[in-house]
Amino acid sequence: MRPQDIIRRKRDGGELSREEITSFVAGVVSGAWADYQASALLMAVYLTGMTTGEMEALTQAMLRSGEVLDFSDISLPKADKHSTGGVGDKTSLVIAPLVAACGVAVPMISGRGLGHTGGTLDKLEAIPGYRVHLDLAEFRRVLGGVGYAMMGQTAEIAPADKKLYALRDATETVESIPLIVASIMSKKLAAGLGALVLDVKTGSGAFMRDEGRARALARALVRTGHSCGVQTEALLTDMSQPLGAAVGNANEVQECILIMRGEAGEEAGDVRELSLELAARMVALSGSVASLDEARREVGRALTSGAALERFRRNVEAQGGDPRVCDDPSRLSDLTTREVRVESEHAGYVVSVDASEVGRAVASVGGGRARVEDRIDPAVGYTARARVGQQVSAGEPFGLLYCRPGSDSEAAAARIRAAYTVGDDAPGQVPQLIKEVIAQ
Hints:
alpha/beta; four-stranded antiparallel sheet; globular
């Protein structure tokens, strides 16, 4: 099949056959398709869309472009969670040990942050010595021994996705729903899962701000998971303000450990609530308990008993990290950073927060990356004190920015200050954390 013919068919709004889509993906991996030809087809998909059948065929072709992991020798059910990302989105660090403590194995293949969003791998690397670059044999050993393992995508897993994502990033075709679905699901389903729960975020700090498009993405992800034989659910959740108080890598890990120690304040309540609900749904979907209510009770006990913290400790040790952070989370703090108060200029109520601007401000002083190759300073971060609906006085801090001396901290603080809208009246309603559950 000539690339030109496949490009023309999609450009003109036609439906590609499974064979044409398989030929495209195989050509991307082998190099038979030039980058400019692959980019042309990506743009055609972005402009004309894909049918459900095309989207499923693309996902399966990308999934089969590399190794599909087989953990059948591990007798436990297998489940995973994926989030579309946001600011302060750290739930994976709590969810994986929670679910493992309930007898469900979690083979979690995660990513890095880019732009205003944080990445699970970057957070884990804030723990001294923690290794996310595991070969598949080591990943299997940690999974079997601890109950969960965390690593980045390897060259063997969905290699077509790595190439296509770079082209999408370069050609402004990232936001196409069919391409997002194929990218997410090809990586997640390569981990040999029986169940998958998706956290699709919407709001000012989300990748997909518009709630209607986020809902459409969630439905497409769930349909595709079911078509591949995996029990799949999606939660549409709020990202109109940072999740929890902590933003920044070491800062977020510390908040998660405090949650698992039962020592986190109410400002981390939404992280705790969302982590428990996502974990319960993973346990329920895996079939290891009779009902969602029973799963909720199980994960609640795993958190309050300390079982989740113990799993986290075992995983940190197994992946080369310093387990002492579990006993003393303050070891993650860096006293050489500078603390900058981000103060409200007016008295009133916090009406809204542009969470993406908070994330970009933290990234601008070293807490995130604008390009894949950028280095992250794990100590840089922000701790939010004011939430939407909260009353503030003039001069009261919205939060505290932690950055290195000599960085452009004042500009970053001003950017965060501008992200908060303060009004005379309290907002009509505070954003609901879990907006909808999508099961089909």
